[in-house]
Amino acid sequence: MIKTRNRHIFKKVPAIGTSQLMRKLSKIESRSMHGQMPIAWKRAENFNIYDLSNNKFIDFTSTIFVTNIGHANKRMIKYLKKGLDQKLLHSYAYIHQIREKYLKNLISFSGKGFQKAFLMSAGTEATEAALKLMRLNGQKLKKRKLGIICFEGNWHGRTMGAQLMSGNEKQKKWIGHKDKNIFHLPFPYPWNVSENEAENFLKNSLQKLSRKVNLKKDICGVMIETFQGWGSVYYPKKYIKLLEKVCKKNNILIAFDEMQAGFGRTGYNFGFQYYGIKPDLICCGKGMGGGVPLSGVIGKKKVLDLPEVGNMSSTNSANPLVCYAGLAVLDEINKKKLVEKTKAKGQILTNYLQKIKNNNPNTILSIQGKGLIAAIIFKKSNRYKVEKLLKKVVFNSMKEGLLVVYTGMNSIKIGPPLSITKSALIEGLQVLDHNISKVFSNYDQD
Ligand SMILES: Cc1ncc(COP(=O)(O)O)c(C=O)c1O
Asked: Which residue from 46, 52, 67, 48 is spatially nearest to 19, judged by alpha carbons?
């Protein structure tokens, strides 16, 4: 029994009915959809989730960094109702007024240097679209300028192009072939490469690549995940700044995959702003629709206009209802000053996580993150399987009314709605803190 301002666990967790529902679903749904913690969501409001028994949890996941403006946000519901009342649920590519209003606001939210956008439904479509745009741009300059630079360990989605650009070899085995024009550079993990070594690290990687290709003649684009997802791991600033310089010199476009980093999450409108550079393309999804399927690519006019008429559109592109949802996200971020507030709350989060690390120096490797997205990265050990222990930490935290992201790797990820109160943020961190100590107490003598 737990009753605080932010949590209320008064019945068994997992709630009665959860395992039956799991069994029923696994009979009729692909296995690939399963593997999350056993919590059946009945309702979610602001930063709280309620299960089948109405137990109330603090949400440190935002589903998966989607509900930046909070679950069932009032403005979101109001705008969606407005859309429903208008009785225009779909118009294919035929124009409608809310699309113009949303796109205008979206482009202005992206800052100077961006003039056009294109809307889709899933994040993976956005990274695919960026791949296509970078290649169309390259081919316009030189027929063989098709190469895309990506990074080992990065992730861009589950469709073919997105998986080819991702850095996980095992996940793309199903494709059966490699794209000889996609190249992966090693990721400059901060525990291996310091800010001062960053430029040389990049120069070495590019030198190796130059043995295979000519940057100016063969490479058309770079796809950068703003931070590496599993651990919220950023590149050193100097690395990205030098990369931008190299790209400019060689007519190479830069696309940022801002799926997790966009829409205020990192304490910036978009995460690339942290590096002080300007990409040519921004790939967005997740927080963009605040829970409604919306993704998009934002960029320069000359790049967004490269595809022929009809050559880059989708049946559900810019659907009127999702435009209302997208507008609600932007208005909520602006009116509630969520970007500024996220920066401040992010400081509380990182300070607390640093304290957890200091208390567990033998088991925690690093704390990573900015704004309200962060990760605790654990050391690997020969004595125990860290992923297994972390699953226990996440499960035990859930039983105490806190949901965090189980990554399946040696990290735990935290990404509450940006609307979370300071009291709930600290309360959740206390739950996580003592569960880490409890689970690792027998293993911290490395
Ligand atoms: C960095 C990144 N890129 C792309 C995607 C793919 O987005 P979606 O699942 O909406 O296709 C994700 C999703 O987790 C992501 O984290």
From this structure: 52
- Asked whether the predicted pLDDT for residue 446 surpasses 60, the reply is no
| φ, ψ at 183 (rounded to 5°) | -120, 135
| Ligand 1 centroid to residue 130 C-alpha, Å | 13
**CATH architecture for the domain at 2-69+338-440:** Alpha-Beta Complex (3.90)
Note if the pTM is more than 0.90: yes
Task: Tell me which residue has its CA closest to atom 14 in ligand 1.
Answer: 157
- Taking the CA of residue 224 as centre, how many other CA atoms within 13 Å lie in the half-sphere pointing to its CB? 30
Please report the pLDDT score of residue 421 as a whole number.
98
Listed residue (238, 419, 224) closest to 341, CA to CA: 419
Pick from 35, 259, 232, 14: nearest CA to 130: 259
Cα of 289 vs centre of ligand 1, distance in Å, is: 13
Question: Which residues 6+ apart lie within 8 Å of 271 measured at CB?
Answer: 226, 227, 256, 258, 261, 262, 265, 370
Cα(196) to centroid(ligand 1), Å: 31
Q: Which atom of ligand 1 is nearest to the CA of 226?
A: 1
* E strand segments, 363-425: 364-370, 373-378, 402-403, 405-406, 411-414
Give the domain 74-335 fold: Aspartate Aminotransferase; domain 2 (3.40.640)
Q: How far is the CA of 123 from the centre of ligand 1 (A)?
A: 5
Residues near 192 by beta carbon (within 8 Å), at least 6 away in sequence: none
225-238, pLDDT tens digit by residue?
999 999 999 999 99
Q: Whose CA is nearest to atom 8 of ligand 1?
A: 123
Q: How far is the CA of 200 from the centre of ligand 1 (A)?
A: 30
- For residue 353, give the nearest of 371, 375, 378 by alpha carbon: 375
Tens of pLDDT, residue by residue over 136-146, are 999 999 999 99
Res 444: pLDDT: 66
Atom of ligand 1 nearest to the CA of 286: 10
CA of 122, closest atom in ligand 1:
10
Find the residues whose C-beta lies inside 6 A of ligand 1: 122-124, 127, 155-157, 225, 229, 257, 259-260, 285
Q: Mean of the pLDDT values across residues 306-319?
A: 94
If one residue of 160, 227, 259 were mutated to test the ligand 1 pocket, choosing by the most ligand atoms within 8 A of its CB, it would be 259
Amino acid at 187: F
Could you tell me the residue ranges of all domains in the chain? Answer: 2-69+338-440, 74-335
Residue pLDDT, tens place only, 28-81: 999 999 989 999 999 999 999 999 999 999 999 999 999 999 999 999 999 999
